[in-house]
Amino acid sequence: MRISTAQVFLSNLDNLSRTNNDLFKTQQQLSTGKQVLQPSDDPLAAAQIIKLKKEVALNDQFQGNIDVSRRRLELEGIALEQINNINIRLREISIQAGNGVLSAADRDSLATEVDEMTQQMLGLMNTKDAQGEYLFAGYQGDEPAYAYDEAQKQYLYQGDSGQRFIQIGPDNRIASTDSGQKLFEQIEGLEQAVVSNNPDGVLTGVSISDRALFEEAVGEADLPLSFAVDNTVPPETIVVTNRDGDELFNNTADPSDPTNQLEDVLGLSISLNTSTPAGSYTAEVDLRAEKTNPLNVALKLSDGLRNLDLSDPEQKKEFDSLIAGTLDTLTQAEESNIRARTSLGARINALDQQESVNTDYQLYTKQALSSFEDLDYADAISRFALQKTVLEAAYQSFSQIKDLSLFKYI
């Protein structure tokens, strides 16, 4: 077979180009530290590298979410601890005010302190997180959780019951916030008497005038109370029976002044509808505890300390009831606070455990990624030296071949 001069040149040029490309590729691998520079180098390895990089990025996001959750939960824990300290001080003030030896000026001073603590509590319950959102407002993070309503003269919750969950692992979500609805709005105030069934409207109002007497005369198992009112011949006769039908009050023998008698016997104050036609009527009375929050508890305490005149027996009775109710609601607030902080501790522990799992998984994933992606420098340097030697030999041999010609011998 005859080999032309052009064929010799083209073949050598192709070999030199291929050897140069191999050397350049190895040089790129050495400079980047990567085994696979493009998918065509190793399609199977390239697919694994893409998958593993996705896993690393996802795990980094989980770790970032853990950091965000931990900051929120720790901030919530600090706020709850400070709120609990305020509740403890409010309890001390309530006990001090209830001893009966303080002057009006002393009680006014205590009321001033309560006002200051109310404002501190308001600030804590309107705490913002690092993103500038109100921590206890549920999903309504752009609005303060609590604000004072002038019309109702009390603090109202403006958020919702939403609880923000955040993904901290492939199959693990955790609550990173708690709503004020859950933390602060579940405190039950003093139970108040309400008309629960009054089809003919014979009772227009009912309240507890003497709580101690009411609790002594009426047990929880007695409720609801049934009222049988007969106004056929004034004054009215009233018969009160408990849930089992046992009679608790009956003024039939002495119908004079029935409402005062009822107050003296059961501690209940009622108002009868004077426009009700003559006849016999029935109604039911039950107790209902309205939900409140620590801000309104403090607000009522301050108002009672400042405005109730303890020299008036009726106001003194109201003041005693206020102190008893305040202590009860503060106990509920403290118990709720403890439960909330216990939950926070459990969630922070869960974050720590998941962080450890994520760290181990990240290490394993990066090791697998390295096995596909990272360069074996010893092998690459040896290969680079060999390719460099081959290229130099090719240049030298070609330089000798290109000078061969028959014309030199003519």
TrEMBL record:
Any single GO CC term annotated in Swiss-Prot or TrEMBL for this entry: extracellular region
Pfam families, sorted: Flagellin_C, Flagellin_N
Q: What is its main location?
A: other
Q: Which Gene3D superfamilies match?
A: f41 fragment of flagellin, N-terminal domain
Any single biological process term in GO: bacterial-type flagellum-dependent cell motility
Q: Which InterPro entries match?
A: Flagell_FlgL, Flagellin, Flagellin_C, Flagellin_N
Domain (Flagellin C-terminal) ranges: 331-409
List the subcellular locations: Bacterial flagellum; Secreted
Q: Could you state a single Gene Ontology molecular function term? A: structural molecule activity
Q: Which keywords does UniProt give here? A: Bacterial flagellum, Cell projection, Cilium, Flagellum, Secreted
Key word DNA-binding present = no
Q: Give the family this protein belongs to, as stated in its UniProt record.
A: Belongs to the bacterial flagellin family.
What's the name of the protein?
Flagellar hook-associated protein 3 FlgL
